[in-house]
Amino acid sequence: MNWNINRFIPLRKVLKSMQNGIESKITSIKFYNCGYCMNDLKRMYKEIKKHKKVIFRARVMLIDHKTYGKILVDTGYSHRIYENGLTSKLYHLINPTYYTKKDHILYQLRKDGIKPGDLSMIILTHLHPDHIGGLHDIKNTLIIMSDKCRKKITGARYKELVFPNQIGKCMENQIMSVSVNNKSPLKGFKGKDLFGDGSVWLMELEGHAYGQIGIYIPEKKLFYVADAVWGTDFLKYRLRMIPRLIQNDYMAYVQTVKKLTALKGVSIISAHGEEVYNDAQ
């Protein structure tokens, strides 16, 4: 019998795309930096004794899903961060922010050949301005957030940093809120299997912001934790008083950090840290 190795290439591709017995559903994952702020680590963490200014980039995640298309997670900063009156001035006073038109998520997506209409949905981890800044510029796209998070669109307290000019009333009919309280693949974390196929999990990450969620991709063993921690290098550090006051629930923040620290075999990527993700991993 004459064997033709090319006959087995499709099977080999399928086998390569299988992880834990499940065919791969994620085509690619990419991160974009959409503006940044600067802060002094000594003023943030008790264990840091010397002044050191650090850039905290506003990271946006793009998931290309074989079934559900291009999924954007958060939208980074936009020019609107400068247009909220006194609130913006106070925000910049404690959190100096830097943004140009080239930082906008849509500008960067277009450079990659992706139009706004190519996005199937946007997942918001929480409602702070460095995560929802570009939302106004992406029209008629499904917006997914936790049910807790949705409650903060109106009536948020000042310290919760939800700016009214970031989400318009016209967007209300685009929002789908979900309950994130089921058992998840990650020990100690509640979650929601977004599509029911195990490919994308919304994970509860209480502490920093009310209703904050992260994104877990099991086949990549990738956990995007948004602002649950401002960088994996800081998991071991304790917050000083002012950063504590910014947290929605400091004790919940501490518990979330402990659970993240205990995770094994998972790549943790934060919204503002220096972690590097290699899509080939």
List keywords for this structure.
disordered N terminus; 8 helices; about 280 residues; alpha/beta; six-stranded mixed β-sheet; about 20% helix; Metallo-beta-lactamase, Chain A; seven-stranded mixed β-sheet
Short structural summary:
This protein has 281 residues and is an alpha/beta fold. The protein has helices at residues 9-16, 41-44, 85-94, 105-111, 129-132, 147-150, 241-246, 250-262, and strands at 18-19, 22-23, 26-40, 53-65, 69-73, 97-98, 119-123, 142-146, 175-178, 182-183, 190-193, 201-204, 213-217, 222-224, 267-269. The longest helix is centred in the last third of the chain and has 13 residues, at 250-262.
Radius of gyration: 20 Å
Strand content: 25-35%
| CATH class membership | Alpha Beta
The overall strand count is: 15
Q: Please, what is the average pLDDT?
A: 88
Are there runs of 5+ residues with pLDDT below 50, and where? 1-20
C-alpha geometry: globular
Give the helix tally: 8
Measured distance between first and last alpha carbons:
38 Å
SSE topology string:
HEEEHEEHEHEHEHEEEEEEHHE
CATH topology (level 3) name: Metallo-beta-lactamase, Chain A
The count of domains is 1
In which range does the helix fraction lie?
10-25%
CATH superfamily: Ribonuclease Z/Hydroxyacylglutathione hydrolase-like
Strands ordered across the widest β-sheet: 6-3-4-5-7-8-9
- Main β-sheet: number of strands, strand sense, barrel status? 7 strands, mixed
CATH architectural type:
4-Layer Sandwich
- Category from helices, strands and their pairing: alpha/beta
